[in-house]
Amino acid sequence: MVGLDPRSIVVTEHTGRSVSARDEVLARVRSARAGAELVEPARDYRQTGEHQPGSAALLDLLEDRLVDYRVAVRRTDAAGLRATVADALVAACVAGGPVLRPPGLPATWAPDGQTDDGALSASELDDFAAVVTACRVACAETGTIVLDGEPDQGRRAITLVPDVHVCVVRADQVVHTVPEMLARLDPTRPTTFVSGPSATSDIELDRVEGVHGPRTLSVVLVT
Amino acid sequence: MSTPPTFLGLPAYAPRGVGQLRQDGPFPAAARTALADTQLRRNIGHATQTIRAKRDRVVGEVPDWEELRVAGQQVKAATMARLDEHLERLEREVTARGGVVHWARDANDANAIVTRLVRDTGETEVVKVKSMVTQEIGLNEALADAGIEAYETDLAELIVQLGHDKPSHILVPAIHRNRAEIREIFLRGMPDVPAGLTDDPRQLAMAARAHLRQKFLTAKVAVSGANFAVAATGTLLVVESEGNGRMCLTLPETLITVMGIEKVVPTWRDLEVFLQLLPRSSTGERMNPYTSAWTGVHTTPDGVIDGPRHFHLVLLDNGRAATLADEVGREVLHCIKCSACMNVCPVYERTGGHAYGSVYPGPIGAVLSPQLTGVEDNSSLPYASSLCGACFDACPVRIDIPALLVHLRGKHVEQRRAASRVPTPEAVAMAAASWVMSDPDRFARAERASRLGRLVARRGKLRSLPPPLSAWTSSRDAPVPPAETFREWWAWTRGASS
Predict the structure, then answer these.
(1) Which of A45, B57, B86, B483 is the residue whose CA sits 20 to 30 A from B233?
(2) Measured at the alpha carbon of residue B436, what is the angle toward residues B434 and B440, in degrees to the nearest 5?
(3) What confidence tier does B425 reach under pLDDT thresholds 50, 70, 90?
């Protein structure tokens, strides 16, 4: 095999049978990358931001980024949370409309609504005007909120089909940079990174908010 | 005694006759048609200008952009150096978490696998998330042949599909259409088009929402691509904007994801680089509206299935291993399909994407398509560039596209030389130039002879020359030779004193 053109493919057919697509693709790749040197990547970029998670500067930055995505942001403390969520629902024009909540949302966080038991079909979810959830982590620099399917956020469909999503973010969940955000996540969970309402740039590369996902995203920051 | 190794010989390129990776004719001919379309040039000029300004703004605010680019380049290079190991790990992790992994040598394999998987569900419709790789392999056509209808759900893909058109950009496949044309396409192709639809982009987006809503809510099978796959955990990611991706990845019972083998990254942590580089480079946003990450099949703590019950991952080669075998050319596999290179390319801006023939247009397409197909099948693409270098500066993973273009031009010339005993025109020209330039007297005579060119010049340029020199002037102007050669000027200014 010495002196073999690296582009040629070597497959040992021990049995004379044709090899599987799996074995053939892997053999091609092994042969193709033979001799490639493995160099540990340099990670000289910022790992952490200058601001501590939950600091006032980060909350301001997150709000600035969210507003840039046309997200309505409200701030409150634990005592005012329920009223502020209600206010956010009213502003999104769903006062009195059916509101959905994930099974683990604290009872005091939001006005009464129907708790998702996992049995509602997509079409039934479409009858709900809004959903209220918590989140796992928020990244201030990019204005990103992450949902990971814990009981206070629910299965993915409930934050997708209703047209209004009110998301409660606690100050201690707000980090500065993308690396800090990813470090707080478990990759094996169903994870959705949300940066503003659904949007498209497909018409003349101009951004338009509101396509298939929730057209209104409203964030309540609890300090 | 063991059987000796079997040499399968030539590199396994993407097969002919399936998918969309090859030019119908040479780039200059296709470009001429595109250049004559002033509406197309206006649309693309406007769109690329918009996106360049947005990208510059959000890239400029990242203090460690260059460090991120270097990391992106190095993570990809390290991944490719052990690609087989990462693919095997990915397969193990996906399988352990309830997914099923399939391997496809090429487009035909992948189309057959997906068709069989859809048939097994008993469904005759699938919803699709925008995916370059399924365009590359011609999956929609293969499904249609099997009686399965594929509904594109990305707005731009929908515009292309309803307009019976071809994609012309990897991020915004309908970039060549303006709002008025999109309205026309909707009026003609959407049976449920709202009355009084105007060309306001918001109204057009709302029409698409209404058109696809029932499809999303009732679809049983979805087909997607993937932006990244994390080997260590078996996690797949789709990066999108509209929520059509979330709909397809969450609501159907069966999800089939087709992924090029180069999309794998070793660890979750590696995403901290790419999730910063990709959105800012592609749509000029700090972060795209939605990114979904899933690992196999998910169940909530209460035992409720979260998302599809069945997940299939199809790992596709289709010329990628052959590309990996080229020690220079393999760098193209680092591409994260952001499209920044086409948005800054002066050639793309004028010709648009269709002139490149392949679903991968622009600078990256000019180095990717010829490697997936073998350079002889896309031989004019490596020349579809002025080598200005703007694409390298814009590339978030520092792919040296100009160097790859030159490398592929070299490969093309070598192949032609190997294939024919008759020397090529370039070889003849280079041999003649070498003979002329190796002797001062011959060179001086040639310089003087070049003045003949002044006779056919117009407006300071040589626009067309007789054969064989027409090979040069058919696609470029040549400068007019000066009235006086350098030697003549030297002789009368300094020559007397020396």
Answers:
(1) A45
(2) 120
(3) confident
Q: Are A126 and A97 in contact (CB under 8 A)?
A: no
DSSP codes of every residue in B358-418:
SSS-HHHHHHHHHHHH-GGGGTTGGGS-----HHHHH-TT---HHHHHHHHHHHHHHHHHH
Q: Are A10 and A19 in contact (CB under 8 A)?
A: no
Same-domain status, A112 and A155: yes
Tokens read off for B178: 């303006």
Task: For residue B132, give the nearest of B83, B182, B90, B169 by alpha carbon.
Answer: B169
**pLDDT at site B444:** 87
Sign of CA pseudo-dihedral B14, B17, B21, B22 = positive
Q: What is the pLDDT of residue B484?
A: 87
CA distance B404 to B345: 15
Q: How far is B438 from chain A (nearest CA, A)?
A: 36
- Going by the DSSP 8-state scheme, the letter that residue B117 receives in this structure is H
pLDDT of residue B8: 54
Q: What is the CATH number of the domain that holds A161?
A: 3.40.50.10420
Q: Which element (helix H / strand E) includes A209?
A: strand A206-209
Q: What is the CATH number of domain B27-321?
A: 3.40.50.10420
* Pairwise CB contact (< 8 Å): B67 & A151: no
Chain A residue numbers with beta carbons less than 8 Å from the beta carbon of B155 are 200, 202-203, 211
Q: In terms of Cα–Cα distance, which of A126, A125, A176, A71 is closest to B289?
A: A71
- pLDDT of B2 reads 42
Q: pLDDT tens digit string along B185-205?
A: 999 999 989 889 999 999 999
Minimal CA separation from B479 to chain A, in Å: 37
Q: Residue B351: how many CB atoms within 10 A of its CB? A: 27
- pLDDT per residue as tens digits for the range B294-343: 999 999 888 899 999 999 999 999 999 999 999 999 999 999 999 999 99
CA B195, CA B237: separation in Å to the nearest integer? 38
User: Do A129 and A63 belong to one domain?
Assistant: yes
A73 and A29 assigned to the same domain: no
Distance from CA of A70 to the nearest CA of B (A): 11
Query: Comparing A67 with B424, which gets the higher pLDDT?
Result: A67
pLDDT in tens, B342-399: 999 999 999 999 999 999 999 999 999 999 999 999 999 999 999 999 999 999 999 9
How many contiguous H segments (helices) and E segments (strands) does chain B have? 22, 15
SS3 B498: coil
The minimal CB distance from B286 to the residues A26, A143, A161 is found for A143
Pair (A90, A200) in one structural domain: yes
> What pairing do the DSSP bridges indicate for beta strands B235-240 and B228-230?
antiparallel
From the list B172, B168, B205, the residue with the least C-alpha distance to B190 is B205
Helix (H) or strand (E) holding A165: strand A164-170
Contacts of B63 in chain A (CB under 8 A): 46
CA distance B91 to B312: 11
Distances (CA, A) of B19 to A131, B194, B372: 42, 34, 12
List of residues 6+ apart from A140 with CB closer than 8 A: A49, A51, A58, A59, A61, A62, A65, A174, A175, A176
Residue span of the structural domain in which A92 resides: 56-222
* Domain annotation covers residue A201: yes
Residues A97 and A203 in one domain: yes
Q: Indicate the residue of A13, A143, A205 with minimum beta-carbon distance to B50.
A: A205
In 3D, which of B332, B16, B38, B356 has the Cα closest to residue B166? B356
Q: Which band of pLDDT confidence, cut at 50, 70 and 90, is reported for residue A85?
A: very high
DSSP labels, B18-58: SSS-S-SS-HHHHHHHHHT-HHHHHHHHHHHHHHHHHHHHH
Which residues on neighbouring strands pair with residue B315, listed in sequence order?
A: B103, B259
Nearest to A22 among B103, B212, B250 (CB): B103
